[in-house]
Specification:
Structural class: mainly alpha
Order of helices and strands: HHHHH
Largest sheet: none
Family: Belongs to the SID1 family.
Strand content: under 5%
Pfam families: SID-1_RNA_chan (PF13965)
Subcellular location: Membrane
Number of domains: 2
Membrane topology: Multi-pass membrane protein
Distance between the termini: 20 Å
Keywords: Glycoprotein, Membrane, Signal, Transmembrane, Transmembrane helix
Radius of gyration: 20 Å
Number of helices: 5
Length: 146
C-alpha cells in the first residue's frame, strides 16, 4: 500500500486532533474544550489547504494577513485564558475574582477577548477570501481540486 501525502496528513490530523486536545489539555468546562476544538480544527484545515497549494505549485498570497491572523488569534486566546471570573461560580464568588479594568478603565480581560477575537475572525475571513485571488483569471477546469 502506497502512503500518499494526503493519507499522511489525515493520520497526523487525527492523532493530533484527538490526542493533543483531548489528553494533554483538559479544561474544566465543556465550552472551553469546544472552543479549542473549533480553533484547532480551523487552523488544521487552513494549514492543510496551504500545504496542498504548495504541493501543486500555486502561489500563496497575503502572507501579511496570515501573520496578522495568527498574531490576533494568539493574543485573543491569551486573553481568554485569563480567568477573572467563573461562569460556574456563584455571583458573589465571581465578583470576588473580578480584576480591575485594564483598558480605559472600562474593559477587562474578558471584554478584550471578545474585541480581539471578533477582529481575528474578521481578518481570518478576509484572508480566506483573498487566498485564491491569484486564480481569478484561471478557468475553472484548470484549477486543481484536492
Amino acid at each position: 500500500m502506497k502512503i500518499t501525502h494526503v493519507l499522511f496528513i489525515e493520520y497526523t490530523y487525527s492523532f493530533v486532533y484527538r490526542g493533543a486536545i483531548g489528553i494533554a489539555f483538559r479544561p474544566l468546562d465543556f465550552a472551553t474544550y469546544l472552543l479549542f476544538i473549533m480553533i484547532v480544527n480551523m487552523v488544521f484545515y487552513l494549514l492543510f489547504y496551504l500545504f496542498m497549494k504548495g504541493m501543486r505549485g500555486e502561489n500563496v498570497l497575503s502572507f501579511l494577513l496570515l501573520g496578522l491572523t495568527i498574531f490576533l488569534w494568539g493574543t485573543a486566546v491569551s486573553f481568554f485564558l485569563k480567568t477573572n471570573s467563573g461562569w460556574q461560580d456563584s455571583a458573589a464568588r465571581s465578583r470576588e475574582m473580578n480584576a480591575d479594568c485594564s483598558i480605559m478603565g472600562f474593559y477587562d480581560a474578558h471584554d478584550i477577548w471578545h474585541l480581539i477575537s471578533a477582529f481575528a475572525l474578521f481578518v481570518s475571513f478576509v484572508y480566506l477570501l483573498l487566498l485564491d485571488d491569484n486564480l481569478d483569471q484561471t478557468r475553472q477546469t484548470d484549477i486543481p481540486v484536492f
